[in-house]
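Appendix B, record 7
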Amino acid sequence: MAFVDVLKWDTPPNVLAWKYPSDSLTTWTQLIVSESQEAYLLKEGQFVGPFGPGRHRLSTENYPILTSLMTLAVSGGKTPYTAEVWFIQKAFTLDIKWGTSDAMQLEDPRFHIMLPVRAFGRYGIQVTNSALFLSKMVGTLPAYTTKTVSEFFKGMLVREVKNLIARYVVEKQICLLQMSAYISEISDAIEEILVQKLSKYGVSICNFAINSISTDDSDPAVARLRRALAERAEMDILGFNYQQKRSYDVMETAAANEGSGSVQAPMMGAGMGMALGMGFGQNMGAQAAQVTAQAYPQVVQCPSCRTPLAPGARFCGNCGTRLETQAPQQKFCSSCGTANAPGARFCCGCGNGLA
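Structure tokens (predicted):
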């Protein structure tokens, strides 16, 4: 069995701890520890160290505790023994990414619908207590990378993120679509919680950040909500409400129905065209009726054959019936379009004065 004379570790990126591949040492072995590193000897479950930056000779004279851990057998002036040597990276390792693997189903406090929410971000990690880290984490692996450690803590991290986001939604009644305004506050709160929980593993977390708290746009509930919000924003810009928009939609459909065969269909189309030109700020139904009444003050029908006649006609153009003896015509309100009895002075629908 060959004995190692010099132990050192050139730290690769994203590796927090590494075990030297040989455990055959002698009291002439030189241990070289670089800046931002620490080293420990592990023998029968006991740690010897830490060995800080510099060169160390692993002799029982320099480290008397080694004597009680080894069965010494002097060979050529050397004292051979076996022990694992672990190197620990003490510098911060940054830019470790995290994310929720599945969406949280949360009820939005403003719109009262269930929405799927996901969160993503990054953080940094540092080994602050090497002996504690090794005692908690050392197993069969020859090295502990940032991926290994982040996977180990992933369940805890994601659970705390979900809990805190849910608390903000429930307790502070924050709309899920407005969570981005609270990302910094939530990130600081989660980092404080994780620092306490990870300290018992000899690890500290730093620069914890949530990059985004978002909803899944492919979800049907999210798609419907965004469409509704877009329509509301459009109505706010144009200056009319949902009831007026529904009235407009109904009238627009009626105006486009050219196959109805009634006299009112073309009149409604003309009224709608003029109403659209007058703006959406007033009630669309009342505007359409008012414009129609102005364009067609009175629709005269022959009392005999019911043929529509032009206003002011004295004889029916279809059957020749004299119109002067027909009953007085109804009065239509110029404000709401309600038909009123002949001689009425005020509208029975809205109270508006009649001419």
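Remarks on this record: The helical segments are 65-69, 130-137, 146-171, 183-198, 220-238, 242-256, 264-278, 284-295. Residues 244-327 form one domain.
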